[in-house]
Amino acid sequence: MSTTTTTTTETQTQNGGEQKTRHSEVGHKSLLKSDDLYQYILETSVYPREPEPMKELREITAKHPWNLMTTSADEGQFLNLLLKLIGAKKTMEIGVYTGYSLLATALAIPEDGTILAMDINRENYELGLPVIEKAGVAHKIDFREGPALPVLDQLLEDPANHGSFDFIFVDADKDNYLNYHKRLIELVKVGGVIGYDNTLWNGSVVLSEDAPMRKYIRYYRDFVLELNKALAADPRIEISQLPVGDGITLCRRAK
């Protein structure tokens, strides 16, 4: 999920003026140092083109106490466009929360497209479900409550599932990302894409061990670092790590 961790307001000088960055603010999902620049992106390119159901769900999620877990609006737009570009039809999402990225996917894939969606908390998913239903895309979603690994293992038991998914998005427990990857690389088709979210982990990946970090950032940081190294060395995939949201790494299965 997208994260926001620094607790102080930073000030930097550019072109003789001051720009404030407020990374502790709820809803700030960007790694950009300038809030004004991020707001410009949102107000110029994202919010004016955001589908009404996604806007409604984003506003509902903003009121939830765990709203920092949601996918940012710019990342939702990116995923929606990416799915259209690759012509994805059969998809999977691990980690749903209230369903913002799930809705972005459902709106992007064809009417007969499918999403196997997994999350350990159905209550959060049901918070966004009325919006998804109103958008007319709930029939595309097969929601499974519970841990994802047993579901993936069950899928792998059937050879018909191997190489059958066009796109898979992972935004869940970082300590299991490598466990997911070992399984997902068999389930995504050659030419298909896996997207791993939070791979820059609020910028902590470049911090020293003794740098101040929130406890959950420090705990998962090593898992994210391990994942990034593993993906970079995996000969089965082509990758691109992008500073969108909290960092997303796209992996195209090459062989």
TrEMBL record:
Bias class Low complexity marks the residues at 1-14
Per UniProt, the ranges with Basic and acidic residues bias are: 19-28
- Region: Disordered; residue ranges are 1-28
Any GO BP: methylation
State the source organism's domain of life: Eukaryota
Any one GO molecular-function label of the UniProt entry: O-methyltransferase activity
The record ties this protein, via InterPro entries, to:
Cation-dep_OMT (IPR050362), SAM-dependent_MTases_sf (IPR029063), SAM_O-MeTrfase (IPR002935)
Please name one Pfam family that this protein belongs to: Methyltransf_3
Keywords (A to Z) from UniProt: Metal-binding, Methyltransferase, S-adenosyl-L-methionine, Transferase
Q: Which residues form a coiled coil?
A: none
Which protein family is named in the record?
Answer: Belongs to the class I-like SAM-binding methyltransferase superfamily. Cation-dependent O-methyltransferase family.
Name the record gives this protein: Caffeoyl-CoA O-methyltransferase
